[in-house]
Amino acid sequence: MLYIESGVVPLRKKTKTPRLFSYEEPHFDEFVRFLSPDKPTYLFDSNALKARAKDFLSGFPGDIAYAVKCNPTRRVLQTLSKSGISSFDVASLEEIRQVRKVNPAATLYYMNPVKTPESIRAAYYDYDVRIFVLDHRDELFKIVRETSLAQDLDLYVRVALPKNPSAQTDFSSKFGAEFDQALELLKLARPVSRKLGISFHVGTQSMDPQVYDRAISYVAKMVASAGIEIDALDVGGGFPVAYEGLQPVPLAGYFQVIRESLKKNRFDDLHILCEPGRAMVADSTQLITRVELRRGDLLYINDGVYGGLVEMASWCGLINPYRLVTREGSEPAEPCRSFRLTGPTCDSLDMMAGPFLLPESVAMGDWIVFQRAGAYSQSCRSGFNGFAAADVVPVQVRPPLSRRTE
Questions:
Q1: Domain 2-45+284-403, CATH among 2.40.37.10, 3.40.50.150, 3.40.50.10490, 3.40.50.10800
Q2: Is the distance from CB of 60 to CB of 274 less than 8 angstroms?
Q3: Helix 93-102 to helix 74-82 angle, to the nearest 10 degrees?
Q4: Where are the domains of the chain?
Q5: Which of 232, 220, 238, 114 is nearest to 171 (CA)?
Q6: What is this structure's pTM?
Q7: Residues 274-331 pLDDT 10s
Q8: Number of CB atoms found within 10 A of residue 357's CB
Q9: Contact predicate 201/231, CB 8 Å
């Protein structure tokens, strides 16, 4: 049986837009067949998101500002707000508006290092934003000018870090002031800052916890060289998720490294902040796709790199954990073989090289379900070639009865 918030629904009986589906873990395949989605469909589990928010709130030695870019959907913002997340890292006026609609009292960190004059002005005067980041002197002058020499600005100088080989993407290649430039910016920003901070980003999907210690120690040398006091330190995001072939240490290990490094560098009395995105929301969502055609080792599915699978494109290379759900309910036949996947658009770049190891019996009409799809999958969807549509189904995953009664 499947349960909806308002009652019980027998399997295979279609309903109109249920508020909440609930199913037991062992019956996931049966649940997918019950839904029988004919377009990309997200399963969103708010309990999984609440649990991860709790991990950050209880384990990280400072405040949490969720990186909205990772998943800006209303359900995510509402769930995080109800879970105790009261600060958000925003990069645009649209993200500012999205958060304000859900949480009018939230603290907003405008952490895009390059902002338009109009967006700075609107953020300050229309949306009560007081915290801005910068990594160039012209950006500092822009902020001061557009806020009319405001005396209540909290400014963060974004610094570039030495290259991090353990990261999937090195963010310092685009943003951040080099050492000497950062010294100048700190000296320029101190007189016009109510609170002065330093921010950095170690790079997305960083597999080595010690990179945070190296970054914090780097900042400590910078502060000592500048000869000024700072009030805050933002260690950014970069906390990893377990994708195919990537098994990071638990989050607690990252938090411990950060805690020890702050103490070692005498930063533990500062206002400490992090900006988790991927690690906060990835586990909350699964994405169901359907096989529309099989041609040898190439499977044509109804979502791709222009949709919810952008991070599995060959130029990115992350692969979400995945599983096959057969349409007819039979057990997938062994052995497995290597497949490539391609999306629904008429662009040959819409390819996911894999390899994806799936049962040899995979056929048209079967579903491939991608786990840990809560990060970037929805925010990066495009309407290219007319393939924008995707459904979202709220779910509650219940452990087996035996585990609930232990």
A1: 2.40.37.10
A2: yes
A3: 50
A4: 2-45+284-403, 48-281
A5: 238
A6: 0.93
A7: 999 999 999 999 999 999 999 999 999 999 999 999 999 877 779 999 999 999 887 7
A8: 13
A9: no
